[in-house]
Design brief:
The protein is mainly alpha-helical. Helix content is about 60%, strand content about 0%. This is DUF2892 domain-containing protein.
Length: about 60
């Protein structure tokens, strides 16, 4: 797994992940679990959806 998420992308994903997670908890909605996936991609700095699209946001 080569990193394919840059620093800005990582920050945006972490913020979005927390918001989605909190939204799911506050509404008792299982779709809030998507927040865990977004946070995981931010933590590992690797997105499986970026691989087939050949996207790499670590490059300037």
């Amino acid at each position: 797994m080569t990193m394919n998420i840059g620093e800005k992308d990582r920050i945006y994903r972490a913020i979005a992940g927390v918001i989605i997670l909190l939204w799911g908890i506050s509404n008792a909605n299982a779709l809030g679990l998507i927040g865990f996936v977004v946070l995981a991609t931010a933590y590992f700095r690797w997105c499986p959806l970026y691989v087939p699209m050949d996207v790499d946001t670590t490059k300037n």
